[in-house]
Write a structure and sequence with these properties.
Blueprint (H helix, E strand, L loop, with lengths): L3 H23 L13 H11 L5 H24 L3 H23 L1 H6 L2 H12 L9 H4 L2
Helix pairs in contact: 1-3, 1-6, 2-3, 3-4, 4-6
Length: 141
C-alpha cells in the first residue's frame, strides 16, 4: 500500500526533476534530438512568445527570474526546506506558465506539457503537512 508519505515524496521528486529538466534544456544539457529549446537564446525567444505583452527590455530579466525560481524551488523541494510554502509558490509559478501558454499559443500546449497538472500537483503538495525525509523536520520544534 502506498502511504501519504510516499506520495508526498513522489510529488517532491517529480516536481523538482521536471523543473530541473527544463532548466537543463535551456542551458543545452539535453541532447539536441530531444531538446525543446536547446540554448538560452531560444528560451528567451520563447519567453517573448508566451509573454507578448511584456516590453522587450523585460523579456530577458523575466527569463532570468523564471530560471532562478526553477532552480531554487526544486532544490528546496528536494531537501524538504519550507516544503508547503515552496510547493505553493511552485503551483503559482506553474499556473502562471500554463495561463501564459494558453493565452499566447493556445490551450493545447499547456495541456500537452501537463503544466496545469503540475500546478495542481504542487498545490496538492502544499497541503500535505506531515514531514517525511525533509530538513524541515530538523528545524521544526
Amino acid at each position: 500500500m502506498i502511504s501519504t508519505q510516499h506520495i508526498k515524496l513522489f510529488l517532491r521528486l517529480a516536481l523538482s526533476l521536471s523543473f530541473l529538466s527544463a532548466v537543463a534544456d535551456r542551458f543545452g544539457l539535453w541532447p539536441a534530438q530531444i531538446s525543446v529549446w536547446g540554448n538560452w537564446e531560444n528560451f528567451v525567444a520563447y519567453t517573448q512568445v508566451i509573454n507578448p505583452w511584456l516590453p522587450e527590455a523585460m523579456v530577458s530579466p523575466a527569463a532570468i527570474v523564471a530560471t532562478a525560481a526553477e532552480v531554487i524551488f526544486p532544490v528546496c523541494l528536494l531537501v524538504g526546506f519550507k516544503t508547503e510554502l515552496v510547493a505553493k509558490l511552485s503551483g503559482i509559478l506553474l499556473l502562471i506558465f500554463a495561463l501564459a501558454m494558453a493565452f499566447s499559443t493556445g490551450i493545447k500546449g499547456a495541456f500537452d506539457y501537463s503544466v496545469f497538472t503540475a500546478s495542481a500537483a504542487a498545490f496538492a503538495l502544499s497541503t500535505m503537512k506531515e514531514k517525511f525525509l525533509e530538513v524541515d523536520r530538523l528545524i521544526v520544534k
